[in-house]
Each structure stands twice: as C-alpha cells, then as structure tokens.
C-alpha cells in the first residue's frame, strides 16, 4: 500500500483513494476521500482538473494533470479518470499500481475549462478520454441549469466508450434536454469538419466545450467556424505533459531598490476583490501575487496548463512563452499569469 508521510509543498495535500472504477479495458477512475478540514480547499468547478504527483525511479516524481469527471453538485467525492497512452508513464503507473487505500499527493483543483454560467444551452464535444471534463460539465448543466445539452462523443470502437452506462442513464433521465451523438471510428471513419459542422449548425447559439486529441480539436475548431459559432463561445481544454515540478514551493526572486522603483502598478481583480500591487519588471504576475499572499490560480508555471489565464483590461504585457494560448486568444486580451511581465507602467487585469 502506498502511504505518504507529508506533502512536498504548502499547497498540496495527501488524499486517500476511496474507489477504483474500471471504466474500459484501458481506462479507470480514481475516487478520492477528502478530509473534512480540506473540503473548502478541494471545492471545484465543473471541468476543472487535479494535478497528481506520481513516483518515478528516474526523476523522483512526475506531475500529471487529470480532469475531474465528477460533478460538484451530484457526486460526493472528486473523481478523476485516467486512460492509458502508449508512452504515458503517469497514466500507466496509475493504472497498474493504485488500489483502494493508497495515498496520492494532489494539488487543489485548477483550470479555466469551466462555464461561467450553467444556464446556457451547451454543445459538448469529446473524443476518447477527452470526455472526462466534458462529462463533469454535462452533469452540472443537467442538474443545475435548464438549457439543452448536446454531446458529440467520438471513439475508436464501441469498447472504448468511457462512461457508457452513466451516459445511457442520463439520456433516459433527461430525455427532453439531453441529446447524445456517438461517433464510432471503426464504423464511420474519422469525423470530418463538414460532418461536425452539419451537426453543430442548429446549435450555433450554444456554448461549446471541447476536449480530445489535437487533430480532433483542430477539426472541431474548423467545424464550429463553418457552423457560424462565434470564437468567444468556443472553449477548448488542452493538456501537455509538465516538465517542471509544480509541487515545489516557489520563492520569487529578490528585487533591488532600483527594480522596485521602476516597478509597474497593477490592479488585479480576483474572486470579486480588487488588489492594487507593485509589479517589478522581471517578475511574473503569478510570482507577484504569491509574494503578497494571494490565492492566485496556477498549477504548472510553464504556460502549459492554462490555469493562470486572465484578461488584460488595460496596459500591455510580454510573455516568455504563450503556451496553450493561440493567437486569437492573445488578440482577445488573454494572457498567462505565470509567463506575463509588465511593459506598461500601469495595468488592469481580471481573473
């Protein structure tokens, strides 16, 4: 049995696995027991993810992000779903080694792949294990919202359909609001942009959320553009392997008096509160906010997870690495707090 004495950082926690669910031959879900005194720390929004610390003989550990498939409104405990990948050390280790009663070090929920409101109509598109965060949003929208939900779910074959039984139950329970379209590659081939656009066209006024392999995401982006859906209503979740160690506490660089005097000022809106901060030119926004004791959302600090994405309302920044943001995101004012450094003397930023 895997046990952990103490967490490796002030942000992480050690959770016990209370359930292991074999979803398909190559996918399983892990359910976590969250102690009462950590409930608030592990409160999550539909579509967010957890970052797990996985042992490694080569590097000591690796960090991997796994989406929450559970809904905060209907499920008693958080659940992540892991699918094996050919060269995926983290996914294979978790599938081979974790049993009920084992402990895993986990960072609090993070991610911005979550609806601002559940009262919309939703067009949800997932492929393979990309169904995981989509499932969380789907269940939340059905139980807390009143709109229609359309799910397009692509898989290699019928045996690869994760959550098949749960989806059947939801389709029966919400027959008047939920439409599920299964796309099976072994029968229908890979879906094309034209085919998805035909499906999506009647729902162009919905909020679209998509997750899946890169080629699938590219096809869906093209399809939704063809269907006339505005880019502002299209939300994509992208995961990349993390090279660094997000479980390591961050100590911001020391700032000289000269650098402090030349610092920009920034007005940051976070969780409905406004904070006025001094922002030294060589520090990232995440570093500055952490140094002030603010609970800024972040995970990887590499620009690869999107947890610290925020919007520049006034001013200009430069980023060392745009990471998960595409040019259209940047043109719309989105930045990554872990990569952003100030160019303007005064800025206004909203999380």
From TrEMBL:
<dbReference type="GO" id="GO:0016042">
    <property type="term" value="P:lipid catabolic process"/>
</dbReference>
<dbReference type="InterPro" id="IPR050415">
    <property type="entry name" value="MRET"/>
</dbReference>
<dbReference type="InterPro" id="IPR036010">
    <property type="entry name" value="2Fe-2S_ferredoxin-like_sf"/>
</dbReference>
<feature type="domain" description="FAD-binding FR-type">
    <location>
        <begin position="10"/>
        <end position="116"/>
    </location>
</feature>
<keyword id="KW-0560">Oxidoreductase</keyword>
<dbReference type="InterPro" id="IPR039261">
    <property type="entry name" value="FNR_nucleotide-bd"/>
</dbReference>
<keyword id="KW-0411">Iron-sulfur</keyword>
<keyword id="KW-0443">Lipid metabolism</keyword>
<feature type="domain" description="2Fe-2S ferredoxin-type">
    <location>
        <begin position="264"/>
        <end position="351"/>
    </location>
</feature>
<keyword id="KW-0001">2Fe-2S</keyword>
<dbReference type="InterPro" id="IPR001709">
    <property type="entry name" value="Flavoprot_Pyr_Nucl_cyt_Rdtase"/>
</dbReference>
<keyword id="KW-0153">Cholesterol metabolism</keyword>
<dbReference type="InterPro" id="IPR012675">
    <property type="entry name" value="Beta-grasp_dom_sf"/>
</dbReference>
<dbReference type="Pfam" id="PF00970">
    <property type="entry name" value="FAD_binding_6"/>
</dbReference>
<dbReference type="InterPro" id="IPR006058">
    <property type="entry name" value="2Fe2S_fd_BS"/>
</dbReference>
<dbReference type="InterPro" id="IPR001433">
    <property type="entry name" value="OxRdtase_FAD/NAD-bd"/>
</dbReference>
<keyword id="KW-0408">Iron</keyword>
<keyword id="KW-0479">Metal-binding</keyword>
<protein>
    <recommendedName>
        <fullName>3-ketosteroid-9-alpha-monooxygenase, ferredoxin reductase component</fullName>
        <ecNumber>1.14.15.30</ecNumber>
    </recommendedName>
</protein>
<dbReference type="GO" id="GO:0036200">
    <property type="term" value="F:3-ketosteroid 9-alpha-monooxygenase activity"/>
</dbReference>
<dbReference type="Pfam" id="PF00111">
    <property type="entry name" value="Fer2"/>
</dbReference>
<dbReference type="InterPro" id="IPR001041">
    <property type="entry name" value="2Fe-2S_ferredoxin-type"/>
</dbReference>
<keyword id="KW-0285">Flavoprotein</keyword>
<keyword id="KW-0274">FAD</keyword>
<keyword id="KW-1207">Sterol metabolism</keyword>
<dbReference type="Pfam" id="PF00175">
    <property type="entry name" value="NAD_binding_1"/>
</dbReference>
<dbReference type="InterPro" id="IPR008333">
    <property type="entry name" value="Cbr1-like_FAD-bd_dom"/>
</dbReference>
<keyword id="KW-0753">Steroid metabolism</keyword>
<dbReference type="InterPro" id="IPR017938">
    <property type="entry name" value="Riboflavin_synthase-like_b-brl"/>
</dbReference>
<dbReference type="GO" id="GO:0046872">
    <property type="term" value="F:metal ion binding"/>
</dbReference>
<dbReference type="InterPro" id="IPR017927">
    <property type="entry name" value="FAD-bd_FR_type"/>
</dbReference>
<dbReference type="GO" id="GO:0008203">
    <property type="term" value="P:cholesterol metabolic process"/>
</dbReference>
<dbReference type="GO" id="GO:0051537">
    <property type="term" value="F:2 iron, 2 sulfur cluster binding"/>
</dbReference>
<keyword id="KW-0442">Lipid degradation</keyword>
<dbReference type="GO" id="GO:0071949">
    <property type="term" value="F:FAD binding"/>
</dbReference>
């Amino acid at each position: 049995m895997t046990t952990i004495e103490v967490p490796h950082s002030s942000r992480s926690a050690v959770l016990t696995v209370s359930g292991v669910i074999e979803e398909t031959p190559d996918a399983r879900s892990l359910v976590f027991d969250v102690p009462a005194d950590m409930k608030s720390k592990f409160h999550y929004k539909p579509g967010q993810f957890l970052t797990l610390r996985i042992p490694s003989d080569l590097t000591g550990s690796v960090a991997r992000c796994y989406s929450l498939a559970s809904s905060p409104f209907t499920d008693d405990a958080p659940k992540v779903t892991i699918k094996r990948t050919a060269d995926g050390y983290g996914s294979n280790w978790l599938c081979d080694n974790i049993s009920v009663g084992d402990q895993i070090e986990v960072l609090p929920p993070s991610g911005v792949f979550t609806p601002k409101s559940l009262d919309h109509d939703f067009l949800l598109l997932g492929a393979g294990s990309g169904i995981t965060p989509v499932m969380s949003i789907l269940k939340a929208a059905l139980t807390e919202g009143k709109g229609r939900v359309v799910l397009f779910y692509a898989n290699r074959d019928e045996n690869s359909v994760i959550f098949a039984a749960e989806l059947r139950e939801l389709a029966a329970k919400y027959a008047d609001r939920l439409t599920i379209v299964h796309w099976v590659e072994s029968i229908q081939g890979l879906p094309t942009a034209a085919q998805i656009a035909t499906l999506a066209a009647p729902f162009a006024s919905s909020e679209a959320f998509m997750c899946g392999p890169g080629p699938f995401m590219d096809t869906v982006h093209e399809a939704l553009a063809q269907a006339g859906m505005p880019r502002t209503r299209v939300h994509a979740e992208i995961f990349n392997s993390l090279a660094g160690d997000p479980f390591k506490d961050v100590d911001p660089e020391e700032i000289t008096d000269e650098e402090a005097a030349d610092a920009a000022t920034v007005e940051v809106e976070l969780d409905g509160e406004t904070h006025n901060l001094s922002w030294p030119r060589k520090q990232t926004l995440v570093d500055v906010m952490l140094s002030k004791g603010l609970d800024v959302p972040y995970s990887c600090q590499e620009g690869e997870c999107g947890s610290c994405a925020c919007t520049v309302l006034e001013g200009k920044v430069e980023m060392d690495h745009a990471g998960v943001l595409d040019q259209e995101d940047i043109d719309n004012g989105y930045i990554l707090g872990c990569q952003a450094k100030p160019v303007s003397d005064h800025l206004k930023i909203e999380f």
